[in-house]
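INFO  loader      accepted 1 record
INFO  loader      residues=265
INFO  predictor   begin
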Amino acid sequence: MKVGIQGVEGSYHHLVAQNYFESIELVECMTFDELARSIVNGNCDIAVMAIENSIAGSILPNYALIDENNLFITGESNFNINHNLLSLPNQDINDIKEVHSHPMALLQCSKFFSKYPSIKLIETNDTALFAKKISENKLQAFGAIASIESARMYGLEVLNESIQTIKNNVTRFVIVEKKGSGVKDFTKASLKFVLDHKRGSLASVLNVMSDCSLNLTKIQSIPVIISPGKYAFFVDVTFDKKDNYDKAISIIKIMAQEFKILGEY
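INFO  predictor   done
INFO  writer      dumping tokens
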């Protein structure tokens, strides 16, 4: 199975893919846009995509990518993220002039680096990518924020372990495909709907979910670009009985101006 990830070997996407699938052929993509295109174009069969983090919040562009490319969520994985400061061996943190990593990793480690104002923080496409560059190019005085696995993979030293601001740092990844897997025994769904821009419209939909015994586990609003002031709502719901889910869906379809099932898993 060809599994697409954002990043390179040693990245958190790679670790999630390894844990989730038994055997994979890795397809590395440097951006989430490229990852979405690789699914649409058939360059990979399935992909792992980060969607939210317990510290930094939702990754809004990825909601839009899933929606706009008509991708389908078929699974999820909550992965505990431990960020580590890596460098070439035999260096001290006071030797480090620049640290490169993914913007989310930099954000999640901001408190740690506030103690080292002389270190310049640089955004890159991936956590493991710059760790690889340090190793390949023997870059002295450079650091990377990445996983312990990246350190082992690229022969780097761990200067500081677990440097994220909040130690319980969990990222939710979704498994996405070009079309649904056809699974019938599912207990969670991801939905998108757009409502009339009037008072009480969202409350009415939430009441339907409650009346049908759906548990709302996530709600995220994203502006509808072509209609200022109007929002699309992305929600995750869980349920015990599929009949309750089917009933809720049939009602919400009538209430919404636009409705779409993004995933059932």
